[in-house]
């Protein structure tokens, strides 16, 4: 009888999906001077190749030593590609690599053109399908620290949000 009660109790415990940590680190240096570049914007994107719909987008900044990092909790069944990109005097440069449960620690270092007077805004964005049909999540990845946004979705609607979700 005790065995039956234990088995029934175990059947009521929900199965929890295990996640693993994906670690991304790196250093940004000035290609001309060799100095560390502080406050450099880096865009981190994960493309899920396993078909689960897991998407990730984040913007991080380098510290005074040029160091940046991001730790992402990823469901154990997810594998895909990591993209890390940043601005180098108006040109978006990118590093990428494949990740999986058994390959989850990455270092992407960047040697960039660091023109302090080159703070011109340049529009960049990424988008991913949302869980709702005909919905797209847009992510601002613009360079130059913009303070306002205007999105025109081509269907007669606009948005002034930084990262809008649009339903077509």
Please tell me about this protein's structure.
Helices cover about 5% and strands about 45% of the residues. With about 170 residues, it is mainly β. The strands form 4 sheets. Strands 1, 4, 7 and 8 form a 4-stranded mixed β-sheet that branches. Strands 3-2-5-6 form a 4-stranded antiparallel β-sheet, with no helix packed on it. Strands 9-10-13 form a 3-stranded antiparallel β-sheet, with no helix packed on it. A hairpin with a 5-residue loop joins strand 11 and strand 12. About 15% of the residues are buried.
The overall pLDDT average reads: 84
Rg, alpha carbons: 21 Å
**Largest sheet composition:** 4 strands, mixed
Q: What fraction strand?
A: over 45%
Number of strands: 13
Helix tally equals 1
Question: Helical percent range?
Answer: under 10%
The protein's oligomeric status is: single chain
Structural class: mainly beta
Summary?
By secondary structure, this protein is mainly β. Helices cover 6% and strands 46% of the residues.
